[in-house]
Amino acid sequence: MVNKENLAFLQDKLKYLGFGEGSPLNQDLTEKVGKGDISFQLHTAVSYGDDTMVEAKLYFLLGNESRYYLQKYDAKLSYDSCPEKNKSQTFFIFKGKGFTLKEAFNLLEGRSVYRKLNDANGVEFQGWSQLNFSLKDPAGNYRYFRYGDLYNYNLDKALNIYPILNLQNDDTKEYLVRSLQRGNSHPVYLVKNDKRAKCLIAANPESRMITIHPIGGSAKTIKEILSEIRKEMPFEMPEFKEVLPGDDEQEDDSLETEVIGAPVDDPAGETVFATAPPKTQRKRIYK
Questions:
Q1: Which candidate, 194, 240, 193, places its Cα nearest to that of 219?
Q2: What angle do CA 256, 201, 169 make, to 5 degrees?
Q3: pTM of the predicted model over 0.85
């Protein structure tokens, strides 16, 4: 017999963690909870764009008072055109909270996520997390770089350095900050004098700045804009050598497809920050 209260609780957690609502995954959940096994697993997969796929395996365990809880989920990020970039990680759930599936995707892509965290003793704190792809624990999971508030990374201050279009609008800025905190790579326009360039930006707590990726043939213009604002700064700005291609490199639209990956909550098309953009539709495949 299905514990309806427990089932509703689990469905709410799946929604909160970005696994959907009223989906086949929830139907599978109802069936599994009704069987009463000590533990069970569910599978799902989400495609972000044409080239990436995130497969997830969710682990449920029967706890006290015959109530199930979501213990963890494995996430595997796969690239159709570049399988050597494939990565996987186990994300643990603590008291029903943890990284969402979209945040897991962003972490596996190498970006940073800002949220409430728990240390080894269960003490909660705010901070940025980034996967350390050069170091794994004994279970085969990547270690984390953690940047707490004492690290003094001020994303708002970092954004103000750059001539981002419409950043003076409070609603626009709030939306952008939330998006970057979720680990998204977010499209913006840099505008300086007569120069205008579309790019993708991401939070970079390690450098206390932001990372800039050109879109299409915008790399040269971005370099020129950064060169101009660098002259106005009372401190030395990074050169972004690892981000922007050199003058002798080919610049085309392939730069956009490599980094944007059709993120769930990012604006689509050319409308950047005019209003709060609509959510783009994601393709979800269930197993």
A1: 240
A2: 120
A3: no
What is the side-by-side strand order in the sheet with 283-286? 87-92, 68-79, 52-62, 39-48, 283-286
Each as own residue / partner, the long-range contacts of residues 279-282 (CB below 8 Å, 24 or more positions apart, any chain) are 282/46, 282/47, 282/48
Residue 200 · residue 212 · CB < 8 Å: yes
Q: What is the pLDDT of residues 251-263, one digit of tens each?
A: 332 222 222 222 2
Burial annotation 8-28 (CB, 10 A radius, 16+ → b, else e):
eebbebbeebbbbeebebbeb
Torsion sign, CA atoms 108, 112, 114, 119: positive
Q: Is 220 exposed, middle or buried (0-12, 13-18, 19+ CB in 10 A)?
A: middle
List beta partners, residue 85: none
Residue 121: its pLDDT value, please? 74
The per-residue pLDDT for range 190-228, each reduced to its tens digit, is: 999 999 999 999 999 998 999 999 998 899 999 999 988
Would you report the helix, strand and coil content of the chain in percent, each value rounded to 5? 30, 35, 40
What number of other Cβ atoms are within 10 A of residue 215's Cβ?
A: 21
